[in-house]
Amino acid sequence: MKGPEPLVGFARKRLRRVYYGWWVIIAGSLIHAVGALYYYGFTVFFLPVAADLGLNRAATSLVFSLARLEGSIDGPIVGLLIDRLGPRRMVALGGTLTGLGFLVLSRVSDFWTFLLVYMGLIAVGFDMGFFQSMLAAANQWFIRYRTTAMSILTASFRLGGAVLVPLISAVVLAYGWRTGAVVCGLVILTLVVPLSRVVRRSPEEMGLLPDGRQGPEGADRPAVRPLGADFSARQAFRTAAYWLIAVATALRLGVFSGLGVHFVPIFVWKGLSEQAAANLVGLMAFLAIPAGLILGWLGDRVSKTYILAGGTACQAVAMLLLAFLEGPVAPLIFVLVYAASESVGAVNWSLLGEFFGRRSYATLRGVINTIGSIGVLAPVLAGWVFDQTRSYQPALVTFALVSLIACLLYVNVRRPQIPGAVPKHVYSTGR
């Protein structure tokens, strides 16, 4: 009888035949899952940190808003560095800064130190090493399956939220928020930095083509279709489509950020306990996983602008339901509707790559982050409204109106063309 060696050899051959871009996506998915500790984790820390440091909700929200403002300002610089240096170095550096930031955060004792550590280490590291870098990598490795790849990355972020938020909430409630911060830091350092070694800049540097297809000599090369030109940043800035996408995205993410900070406080306002609220945040993230994968699959086949318009419309409806429905069932109904709107992120960033190509993707995305600075006041607004009225209802109605404006902008986006340029095909050996 033959030993296990032939089976091991067969398995190795099969693994080598897997397009390397999918290994990049697998590594990126694990990185994104851990990155959920930054976004979803803040809402778990919100009330304990405010109580420990003696802060009101507006002041606690200000920390997140200023961190987002910082990310908006340095977005173009980070994007340019990703385009120049590649995502691998940025993921390693960003993961290191974020992990160390959480460890240092566990030792702070006043508002200003908390603000400095959160902005100077955690937020900067996250901006460098997570979404910016991994979505840029996906845009390099995939064209035909761009939205599917990005939706997998986004779904992994939701899965991280679904699994890690209830766990970190249990740690915070049992042992305190400082212990929770140490756990977050150790998890990020242990996983993200080693996984950065898997990420490579582009398929071309490994002698491959996007999507794992063969060159012109390959017999299995499929028929190609034009997908638009590869814009420089300057050329993209001259199109109406870019600015419509940028403003709509900024409005959508502003609402997303405003809610993200206050999920647990809002659910507590609706009558839930802190642990029940954290569990509901995890459920929302979990529901967004299949929704995101389905929308990612659809995004490679139907109009992305209509998917985005529908998602922001769901966002507006969810805000109104949460604002006016009463009783403990209201948060659950909100979660069921909001999960659909929270799942359009991959479609949004894939639309940017589809319309403007691979050449300056991270730079263009970074500029959109800067425009997104208009949304940094959303968490502060929600916190201030609650401090003044003891209710989140006015803030939720405002968020609904902003979501409707974003919906109208998405509907009016049209594919741009470089004047006088001949559209490139999906696969080109002349890059």
Give an overview in words:
The chain has helices at 5-17, 20-53, 57-85, 87-105, 111-129, 131-141, 146-175, 177-195, 233-237, 240-269, 274-299, 304-324, 329-341, 345-356, 361-371, 377-389, 393-411. It is mainly alpha-helical. Helix 2 runs parallel beside helix 7, helix 3 packs antiparallel against helix 15 and helix 7 (146-175) packs antiparallel against helix 11. The N and C termini lie far apart (51 Å). It is built from 17 helices and no strands. The longest helix has 34 residues, at 20-53. The protein has a single domain, classed as Growth Hormone, Chain: A.
Q: What are the defining features of this structure?
A:
disordered C terminus; 431 residues; Growth Hormone, Chain: A; mainly alpha
